[in-house]
Amino acid sequence: MNIYKKKHKLTTSSLSFNQPKFCPTAIWDSNGITIVDESIVGQNPIAIFVNTNNTIYVANKENNKIVIWEGESVNPTKIISGNFTNPYSIFVTSNGDIYIDDGDDNSRVQKWSAETNNFVTVMNVSSECYGLFVAINDTLFCSMYVHDQVVKRSLNDFFFTLNRVAAGTGIGGSDSNQLDGPLGIFVDVNLDLYVTECGNDRVQLFQSDESNGTTVVGSTSLNPTIELNCPSGIILDAEKYLFIVDRFNHRIVGSDLSGFRCLVGCYGDGSQSNQLNNPFSFSFDHSGNMFVTDRENSRIQKFRYIEESCDNSLLIESMYTSSLTPNSSNYFQDCSELDSYYEVIQMNVTVTGYYTFLINSEMNTMYAYIYTNEFNPFDVSKNVLIHSGDSGNHGQFKVTTVLQANMIYAFVMTTSALNVTGNVSIQVSGRSYVDFNRIGKYL
């Protein structure tokens, strides 16, 4: 699925959350800014919501509070305390009402009313709600990880009739009518339900009032897209294009013109500004900036949307030419047998952006890899950022990725066998000139 159309626009006024649209080359600054830390949001923050006015809401699980701050404010502008405990999710409607999970100890969902400044129970549940969503028809959805099910009830029903099943049988499994560890949920304007499943590493789509879902993201989808590892959050834009928290891969991914790609957290798990550690949920502001609950780092990270990445008039062309010959280095694929020739090229850029590499060669089959930091021919799977190869394209193929300014990358091109040699040219289009430097066997 493709998340990209034109530059981002504001969501419709009836929605309380932002659904930005982006161009095909949209990127976010890979270095996040810590807007609040453990002193404000407590240990292991999970739930965040940013409304169309750029008001940010975070549930502090440690102190059982809702922390609120406006836009660029450094300090919280409001803190709401209640008799809820250990909240896992939060949702805010257009009128300012706040729905918060209170299922762990008290088996309910509460609503803080903006009109009365009081909490009321609006849903009875049998466990915590790892995801909450209020659809446009005033139906409240709750995803119950423990019970492998999503339930719902109409907020216009004042008699608290039993919840209805929205998805899942209540028995964990991978069949089309089953769920295994549902977490984040999203309900679109057609009342179609999207569910991220931690246990099945997939995203399921349940069309309105249908009990059988379709896998739209994950290795078992009809058109395999990307492998997820316990996805925990999902957002759709107005065109139903997807952004997903890939929780145990410690990143946020989204679809583009050629499939899915990593958007932030693309440099492994950790505590650096360009890393995440067990992210759980996220939200956009109206400018397209991304706010992520970085759970194990006990912080909220803001990743700035780089709007100028959509201006194709700023693209700069770079060129590199070389040859793979019997004098080139030998490529160890299985650490025991010389398999092919390769060349390592150190490269870096001065402007973070989306870069497209067009590879032309005299060889019918060759491969290209981009590594972060270093390349070791004896451990070729380590530090791979992206790779591609010629599959019947007669010596021409593309590699497209985001490169970060002032980082060192290794571009590795390799033949398919020792008897394959020839000339190669690399044409790059991106936000800055690419500095190529041919080096020896290691970077």
TrEMBL record:
InterPro entries: 6-blade_b-propeller_TolB-like, Bulb-type_lectin_dom, NHL_repeat, TRIM-NHL_E3_ligases. Keywords: Repeat. The keyword Repeat applies. The keyword Repeat applies. NHL repeats lie at residues 170-209. Residues 1-113 form the Bulb-type lectin domain. It comes from the Eukaryota. GO terms for molecular function: zinc ion binding. This is Bulb-type lectin domain-containing protein. It comes from Adineta steineri.
